Amino acid sequence: MMQASQLLLRGFAFVLGAAVGSFLNVCIYRLPVDLSINRPRRSFCPACKKPILWHQNIPLISWLWLRGRCANCSAKISFRYFAVELLTALLFLAIWQSFPWQMAIAYWIFVSLLIVGTFIDFDRFIIPDRVTIGGIIAGILASLAVPALMETNSRLAASVRSLLAAALGYVILLLVLEAGKIAFGRKKIRFDAPTPFTWTKQEDDADFVVGSEKSLWSDHFAREKDRLVLQCGEAKIDNHIYGNVTLDFHYDRVTAEGEQFLLDRVNEISGVAYELVIPREAMGRGDLKFLAAIGAFLGWRGVLFSLFAGSLLGSIVGLITLIVGKRVWSAKLPFGPYLAFSAVSWLFFGDVFLRWYAGLLNP
Known about the structure:
Elements: H1 2-30, H2 61-65, H3 79-98, H4 101-124, H5 129-145, H6 155-184, E1 186-202, E2 205-210, E3 213-216, E4 228-237, E5 240-242, E6 245-250, E7 253-256, E8 259-262, E9 268-279, H7 285-324, H8 336-361
Antiparallel strand pairs: 1-2, 1-9, 2-3, 4-5, 4-6, 4-9, 6-7, 7-8
């Protein structure tokens, strides 16, 4: 009887995880584009926008049954939808088997936030505040409800520890961000040959194309004081033509030979450049709040481990990308997924890591 009830509960945890994963797919798709996660209530095909019927939206089963295609228009449905459902189901099951039920429920919420943040960061290079700030609040409330998350019996002590760990996560990454800005805040690229460029206004943003590389204008400006400088053999700002000129850009304006143009009033800038200086950040500010949310659930040791392991993993992946891939000056790597992977590693293997580390210090 005991084994049967355990199997039933494990099955419930897996099925619940798959169902939650289906909802997380909705969040991953809608949150970055400011769509309500409640309206429309039904999921819909990204291609034809037709609502998906309930029997075509059964977690895991429907994607396999329909062979990854929309039942209405036959458009391909990304494998990511199935992967998120399966990953969530497996994590829910592993957490249920590893922790008391009160802690398991808290950690279910935690890994759900990690999954949403990870896949949005992969797609958009952002982590929405509803994930990060919401995660901080959820972590503090979970610690208040389940003090064992912070290894104490006192609800007050647990909530204070959770808050302090969240603050530590934010502050320590903020220091890294500011130090990185001072040391590596500008990158100079000299082109092998004169390279054409265009800046083309697109509503509230602009497309910035240099040679074969295309990026959004807003991607290069994280701070009001950031500057992007183009050394040009020739340049044209709407109807104003220049010869050998330096274009000094801020996000909302450009200066050429002492003349300043507001970019809101400019439609296109083009020319040929031989040198580019771009502002850059070590990471986005969403990563700071993401690590703070991790701290709110895992405490200060989880913060330090996630930062160290995430930085190491991100550096390895970045190095491999440089070695095997084409070097692109505008390329970006999301940091959130590495923090999330490290946080989950700490969740399951933190004690193993501490014993290993203690053995190194005291063989």
